[in-house]
Amino acid sequence: MNILHIYKDYTPVLGGIENHIRALAEAQAAAGHIVSVLVTAQGSESSVGTLNGVTVRRAGRLATVASTPLSLA
Prior knowledge:
With about 70 residues, the chain is of the alpha/beta class. The chain has one helix spanning about 15-30, and strands at about 1-5, 35-40, 45-50, 55-60, 65, 70. A four-stranded mixed beta sheet has the order 1-2-4-3, covered by helices on one side. It has a two-stranded antiparallel ribbon with strand order 5-6.
């Protein structure tokens, strides 16, 4: 099964939702699923990498308004 998690931040950012998404995504990957996480990057550069079996796509952030990151990527 292909699984995509979408949120504003991911590890190494610390937080309850960030930790939960990481634990969930890593457990799903360990169970044999293809897991990706789409988040915004801390800076303006976009990147793609793999962390503990999870593909992490970080879209470059333009700005943050009312705790909501904005990205065109």
